[in-house]
Input
Amino acid sequence: MYAPLPQPVPAPLVVRLIGVLDAELVAAFGALERGLAGARNATVIVDVRDVDLLGETEMDALASAIGAARREGRDVRLEARSLHWRRTARKYLSAQPPVGAELRSAVRRTVILAHSHNTKRKRR
Output
């Protein structure tokens, strides 16, 4: 008798962004997310609680990158805890399923993507 083999469901993982949210960090996130989700088909939760915001433009760019990944069929979710992030998620990611306690408890791996804003000092 033939019985199909069960396929393992990959555990969700967290991409924790730390530092200044600017175009460079958004681009780095996009490249990292494509590599992580594409290889494993895992749910990627984007944790933004430790980013420093320079403006809403960068928030919109990150939400757009997450939205693009969702439209391409990858399960990428923004964990929007603050009011600003919840507004951004509602604006760009309205069809996103929630990041609940059950999903958070299933996380087995966190990838940290850190970025600092380098400003060059002028020499005197």
